[in-house]
Amino acid sequence: MNWIESLQKAIQYIEEHLLENVTMEQISAQAHISPFHFQRTFALLTDVTVFEYIRRRRLTLAAHELLQSDHKIIDLAHKYGFDTPESFSKAFRRQHGIAPSEARKSSTSIKSYNRLVIQVSLKGAEPMNYKIVEQDEFTLVGIKQAFSYVDGENLREIPKIWQEAYSSGTEDRLVELNNGAIQGLLGVCVDQTEIEDKQMEYWIGTAYEGEVPEGLASITIPASKWSVFEVQGPMPESIQSLWKQIVSEWFPSNPYEHAGIPELEVYPGHHQPPQIWIPIK
């Protein structure tokens, strides 16, 4: 099963169990990747989280049923996964711009979010510069913070860590400590779901050999083969665009699979372009 087929199978599973309380583990198992990597891949491809997609699809179906039946609003609320009519009405208004009771009485249009179909997009006019690198195990020292990846909390909070690292002088300290295998600052997402459900750690650090400096933590990045992509253009738009291009174009067109260890964003400094390091097998 290829990359796109596995993702489409997971989406099919979501659709078939849309009114059930399925877990991220059950969904990601359909794609044969971890919940963490499935969440990241899904968000990169669609610009929404898995749970936001499920919410939108439920509210789309709820609106259709509301307009085509005389079922009570409280019954529809429970059917589509809301604890109370009030929470259902609030979510319904946020998506459709109108309350359920008003939608039933008027001819106001509603928003329909259709089921996803993942397609390969090959854009030869946008070349991807990458190289394959073999890198031995190395130690990263830096700061870290844990986040939930549910509803995109990690996407909202990670930029704040970088702002704090800059204002506190931590970035400058890490640059001075850098004496390891990779030059520059590294941003690293680490899957923590085996330790705590729906959790990830985000690190800002640098490759370092020696005793761990006071006030910093360390993590070992395993040896791996990496596909290293060079970011071209203004930040942060260019790196976000490249992430999506890697998932939607590069993986479907190449024989590699994700190796399941942390990915790296590398900021070499000295006017060199940032890089994205993807562990592959």
Automatic annotation (TrEMBL):
| Family annotation (PROSITE patterns) | HTH_ARAC_FAMILY_1, HTH_ARAC_FAMILY_2
Q: Report the Gene3D superfamilies cross-referenced here.
A: Homeodomain-like, Regulatory factor, effector binding domain
Please name the InterPro entries in this protein's record: AraC_E-bd, Cass2, Homeodomain-like_sf, HTH_AraC, HTH_AraC-typ_CS, MarA-like, Reg_factor_effector_dom_sf, Tscrpt_reg_AraC-type_HTH
> Could you identify this protein by its name?
AraC family transcriptional regulator
The domain of life is Bacteria
Q: Which GO terms describe its molecular function?
A: DNA-binding transcription factor activity; sequence-specific DNA binding
Pfam family example for this protein? Cass2
Q: Which residues form the HTH araC/xylS-type domain?
A: 8-106
* Keyword list, A-Z: DNA-binding, Transcription, Transcription regulation
